[in-house]
From TrEMBL:
Protein name: 4-hydroxy-3-methylbut-2-en-1-yl diphosphate synthase (flavodoxin)
Species assigned in the record: Marinicella sediminis
Family: Belongs to the IspG family.
Enzyme Commission no: 1.17.7.3
Domain annotation IspG C-terminal: ranges: 288-390
């Protein structure tokens, strides 16, 4: 990744070349117990920064308890306060909230309106400066500065070749965050305390905006497709947008803004963000499982069941392995379904199993770092393989 101006957020450094995964709670922040629990779960899943909504007096008052609960649980994840409209007042009226938060996120489109805009913006920056806190100046095309947009629309209308409405919005969003960032510097907040973002929900638009931001400034950049959506749509859209930018060395923190399925854990967005980075070979978070997709040669569902069992087993083991066998996150495991690609893929993996396909001899060779070491048979192949896998981890990581 291309280095930007490094920003220290709590105990996490942003902009030094390693992409940081961020997430956000969806609890009522005023419910300190529930919010602390969800932050803990997000951090356990791998989120290095967690943002919470601070939208009223009750939520601001709850922040100290939330942080205290986390520290009591030995969770030191930096917590970011997300402020809109009334951030200037909440940060001033609740000094312990301002002190406990690791970073503030403000939106230049709604930090203040009319004559009060600059005054309220400066008030927030002053608190951040006094407490040595970083600030993310995060624009969103759903809440653009209307005064700025009106001015730019008038200027655009006078051009011989005016910009399209989409291009004009993109230009306005970039100008909004960069103008605000430079204004924050003029108020005394150092560049190494500023992160910027421009959130849109269109893949191509996000790519264009961040390519432009990357060229125009040295601030650390937070990436994310806003309102990405639910399920496959949200995952695919976020992956498409972020992968292009990350491959170009653009982006210092990322968030995948998924709408959770009913009763689905909030942690899914963290897993997707990690998988994007791992698939691009930018970072490793847990062992990879290479699994056969299945075809007419693999009429049995056993290889699918085994792939699922192995993945779930490793996920359950990772909290322990992360401490006792940290190198295991680089491990590659293959679970293959027939003789066509099974032995080859298994040899390429650190450890792999090639299950028999339709009409093949009912045996399953195990390969460890390219060498055949075992041949499993019978009805207990799954547990046998998992036992061998566990032993391999202990001996090699």
């Amino acid at each position: 990744m291309t280095n930007r101006i490094p920003v220290k957020v709590g105990n996490t450094e942003v902009g030094s070349g390693r992409v940081v995964v961020q997430s956000m709670t969806n609890t009522d922040t005023a419910n300190a117990k529930a919010t602390a629990q969800q932050i803990y779960e997000l951090h356990q899943a791998g989120s290095e920064l967690v943002r919470i909504t601070v939208n009223n007096e009750e939520s601001a008052a709850a922040v100290p308890e939330i942080i205290d609960r986390l520290r009591a649980a030995r969770c030191d994840v930096p917590v970011i306060g997300d402020f809109h409209y009334n951030g200037h007042r909440l940060l001033q009226d609740f000094p312990e909230c301002a002190e406990k938060l690791a970073k503030y996120r403000i939106n230049p489109g709604n930090v203040g309106f009319g004559k009060k805009r600059d005054q309220q913006f400066e008030s927030i920056i002053q608190v951040a400066k006094d407490l040595n806190k970083p600030v993310r100046i995060g624009g969103n095309w759903g809440s653009l500065d209307q005064k700025l947009m009106a001015r730019m629309m008038d200027e655009n209308a006078r051009l011989i070749e005016p910009l399209s409405s989409e291009a004009l919005i993109e230009k306005a969003l970039i100008e909004s965050v960069l103008t605000s960032a430079r204004q924050a510097e003029s108020f005394g907040l150092p560049a190494e305390k500023i992160i910027v973002s421009c959130k849109v929900s269109g893949v191509q638009s996000l790519i264009r905006i961040y390519q432009s931001l990357h060229q125009q400034c040295d601030y650390a950049l937070h990436l994310g497709l806003t309102e990405a959506g639910m399920g496959n749509k949200g995952i695919v859209a976020s992956t498409a947008a972020l992968s292009v930018l990350l491959q170009q060395g653009i982006g210092d923190t990322i968030r995948v803004s998924l709408t959770p399925e009913p009763n689905q854990a909030r942690t899914e967005e963290v897993k997707v963000a990690q998988q994007i980075l791992q698939s691009l070979e930018l970072q490793s978070f847990k062992p990879e499982v290479t699994a056969c997709p299945g075809c007419g040669r693999t009429t049995s569902e056993f290889f699918q069941v085994l792939a699922k069992q192995v993945t779930e087993h490793m996920d359950a083991k990772m909290p322990q392995w992360r401490l006792s066998h940290p190198g295991v996150k680089e491990m590659n495991v293959a679970v293959m379904g027939c003789i066509v690609n099974g032995p080859g893929e298994s040899k390429h993996a650190d450890i792999g199993i090639s299950l028999p396909g339709t009409g093949e001899t009912p045996s399953a060779p195990i390969f460890i770092r390219g060498q055949k070491t075992h041949t499993l048979k019978g009805d207990n192949i799954a547990q046998q393989f998992i036992d061998i896998l566990d032993e391999f981890v202990v001996q090699n990581y």
